[in-house]
């Protein structure tokens, strides 16, 4: 349901205030201790941030795509670790159920995901299957009314605290590529699941990923997303989920870019060299202007694409354009932010050093830039050939 | 017991205030506005009284321009039950003076019959610190100002007041007007789900004229000026030099 203008602006104001007063002041501590303090997790839960994209009927906020990206512009201003905490429940962890799930699955899981009482994780990637998701090796072998899952999932975001996994596994060993893959809802307590050590990442400290090892994990056929009828159709679910996520991630990139620009501008206006603030220097001004224009371009692309998605249009190609452009853009903006800060930008005292490492991931996960390029170009060729 | 909380829409405390070129006041055009922080504390306290079963309804009221309904929506999202908007001005630059506000509030109190009026001690825009006191005089009710602690004890309110050099605890008869200070509590955030729910809570719209109160200004603002900018400092080479400079300036 679309919010009226007043409610939306009140919503975004409240979020902005929460980000500035509660999240940003904790960034350094979260990065140092590699953990979000539990009381802050509770506050994030109370604010309703876990359920932004989950329908109102299931206790979420039911934001439209344009509303969700506007919220992500704001949330993206704080360390990506916070966004990552709520990211799976709002995105890849819940969208499969929302898009393709049965009524029972929705009723069973969405309210707890919306409140944040349950954390969801999306287990697609494997040691030998990243962008090439069609080469999945995890298997699901039928055993009566159940399936037995075996395999290893890698770099699974929020796995260490997850209560529910969406696991992609091959249900038809005869089928090639992405055919013959099904999506299973697997609760974390199910016997046979073990977690690896948390991965040692370049950035985004406070957000955790790890391996998920499945050893004869028994899951009823009813736990296939969409029920037994959607056997072997899991890859289609995965693609739909990733499509929506691209716009969300793009918007987070814009939020991070705007934060980096704000930090750079305030530093440049204070830092004096050769008798004046460096912001007066034209070479610094060029960097500020380039960053501002690029962030603005990304913001416009995303808003336009989100509105068209809400209007029911197919935005697959443009969502991929947004993800590619926005994630590459924030990489350039972060690089300039460090450059504007000079030596200080290389030091952990300034947030730009941390953001420089944090934003590197945006060009990689939920589809690398190169995968987006292929997707965009293939769609172009397909449309032209039709 | 019903608690009535007046809330004022003021310039956001994070905004850098700019004086209008003609010196008639502060420029409020396209400036972010929020609930007066002291009023936010009053709303929080009222909600806590309700959560502790010491109050059964929290009614918020705002007197000013129509846009003050955004402020009321925030109070509703925090947990107030219903809201009353009294439109008393069309121009965002017109401040409704404390006596006019107190008279309107008295009319609302007569209608609503609350057991307690909880107000901010002052608004951060004009720092009058008068409305609560005037209201208690108009009503003939007890008052407790600058509350840093509040407890309801039967038909009495126990108010700890922040006074010069310490704290004073008083017990006043209910109904009463209590104005709150900064350290009373830390207001909660209006959560996103509650913002959505607040849309469905009742918000009545009234006018100052409807209460028979003339809200036009009685005071004339002669001049408004920015605070003086701080003069640049100097760097001294040694403690001796510092001491001699301070002596020159007559500071030691």
TrEMBL record, chain A:
Gene3D superfamilies: Acyl-CoA dehydrogenase/oxidase, N-terminal domain, Butyryl-CoA Dehydrogenase, subunit A, domain 2, Butyryl-CoA Dehydrogenase, subunit A, domain 3. GO terms for molecular function: acyl-CoA dehydrogenase activity; flavin adenine dinucleotide binding. Keywords: Branched-chain amino acid catabolism, FAD, Flavoprotein, Oxidoreductase, Plasmid. Residues 232-380 form the Acyl-CoA dehydrogenase/oxidase C-terminal domain. The keyword Flavoprotein applies. The gene is mmgC. Residues 8-117 form the Acyl-CoA dehydrogenase/oxidase N-terminal domain. PANTHER family: ACYL-COA DEHYDROGENASE. This is Acyl-CoA dehydrogenase. Pathway: Amino-acid degradation; L-valine degradation. GO terms for biological process: branched-chain amino acid catabolic process. Transmembrane segments: none annotated. Its EC number is 1.3.99.-. Its cofactor is FAD. Belongs to the acyl-CoA dehydrogenase family. Residues 121-217 form the Acyl-CoA oxidase/dehydrogenase middle domain. It comes from Yoonia vestfoldensis. Pfam families: Acyl-CoA_dh_1, Acyl-CoA_dh_M, Acyl-CoA_dh_N.
């Amino acid at each position: 349901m679309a919010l009226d203008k007043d409610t939306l602006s009140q919503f975004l104001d409240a979020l902005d205030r929460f980000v500035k007063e509660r999240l940003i002041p904790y960034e350094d501590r979260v990065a140092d201790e590699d953990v979000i303090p539990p009381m802050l997790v509770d506050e994030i839960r109370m604010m309703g941030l876990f359920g932004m994209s989950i329908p109102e009927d299931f206790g979420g906020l039911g934001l439209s795509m344009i509303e969700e990206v506007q919220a992500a512009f704001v949330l993206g201003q704080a360390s990506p670790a916070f966004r990552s905490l709520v990211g799976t429940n709002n995105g890849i962890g819940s969208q499969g159920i929302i898009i393709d799930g049965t009524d029972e699955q929705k009723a069973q899981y969405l309210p707890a995901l919306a409140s944040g009482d349950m954390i969801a994780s999306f287990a697609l990637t494997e040691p030998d299957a990243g962008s090439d998701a069609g080469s999945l090796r995890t298997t699901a072998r039928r055993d009566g009314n159940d399936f037995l899952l075996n395999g290893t999932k890698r770099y699974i975001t929020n796995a260490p605290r997850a209560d529910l996994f969406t696991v992609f596994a091959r249900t038809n060993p005869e089928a090639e590529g992405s055919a013959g893959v099904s999506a299973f809802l697997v609760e974390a307590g199910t016997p046979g699941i073990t977690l690896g050590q948390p991965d040692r990442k370049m950035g985004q400290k406070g957000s955790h990923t790890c391996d998920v090892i499945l050893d004869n994990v028994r899951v009823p056929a009813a736990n296939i997303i969409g029920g037994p009828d959607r056997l072997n159709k899991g890859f289609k679910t995965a693609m739909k989920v990733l499509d929506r996520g691209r716009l969300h991630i793009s918007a987070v990139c814009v939020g991070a870019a705007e934060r980096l620009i704000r930090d750079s501008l305030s530093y440049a206006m204070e830092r004096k060299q050769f008798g004046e603030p460096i912001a007066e220097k034209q070479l610094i001004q060029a960097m500020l202007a380039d960053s501002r224009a690029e962030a603005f371009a990304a913001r416009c692309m995303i808003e336009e694409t989100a509105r068209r998605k809400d209007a029911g249009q197919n935005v697959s190609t443009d969502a991929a354009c947004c993800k590619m452009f926005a994630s590459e853009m924030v990489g350039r903006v972060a690089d300039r932010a460090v450059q504007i800060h000079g030596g200080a930008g290389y030091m952990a005292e300034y947030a730009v050093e941390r953001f420089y490492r944090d934003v590197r991931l945006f060009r990689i996960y939920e589809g690398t830039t190169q995968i987006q390029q292929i997707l965009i170009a293939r769609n172009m060729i397909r449309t032209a050939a039709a | 017991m019903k608690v009535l909380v007046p809330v004022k829409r003021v310039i956001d405390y994070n905004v850098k205030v700019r004086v209008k070129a003609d010196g008639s006041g502060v420029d409020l055009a396209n400036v972010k506005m929020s609930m007066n922080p002291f009023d936010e504390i009053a709303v929080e306290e009222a909600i806590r009284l309700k959560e502790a079963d010491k109050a059964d309804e929290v009614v918020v009221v705002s007197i000013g321009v129509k846009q003050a309904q955004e402020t009321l929506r925030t109070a509703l999202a925090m947990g107030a039950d219903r809201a009353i908007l009294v439109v008393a001005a069309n121009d965002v630059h017109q401040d409704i003076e404390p006596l006019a506000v107190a008279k309107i509030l008295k009319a609302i109190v007569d209608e609503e019959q609350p057991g307690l009026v909880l107000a901010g001690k002052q608004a951060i825009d004009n720092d009058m610190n008068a409305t609560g006191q005037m209201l208690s005089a108009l009503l003939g009710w007890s008052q407790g100002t600058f509350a840093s602690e509040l407890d309801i004890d039967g038909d009495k309110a126990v108010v700890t007041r922040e006074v010069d050099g310490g704290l004073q605890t008083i017990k006043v008869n209910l109904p009463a007007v209590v104005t709150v200070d900064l350290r009373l509590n830390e207001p909660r955030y209006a959560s996103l789900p509650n913002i959505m729910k607040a849309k469905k809570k009742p918000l009545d719209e009234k006018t100052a004229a409807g209460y028979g109160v003339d809200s036009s200004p009685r005071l004339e603002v002669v001049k408004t000026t920015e605070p003086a900018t701080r003069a640049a400092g100097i760097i001294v080479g040694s403690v001796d030099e510092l001491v001699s400079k301070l002596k020159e300036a007559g500071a030691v």
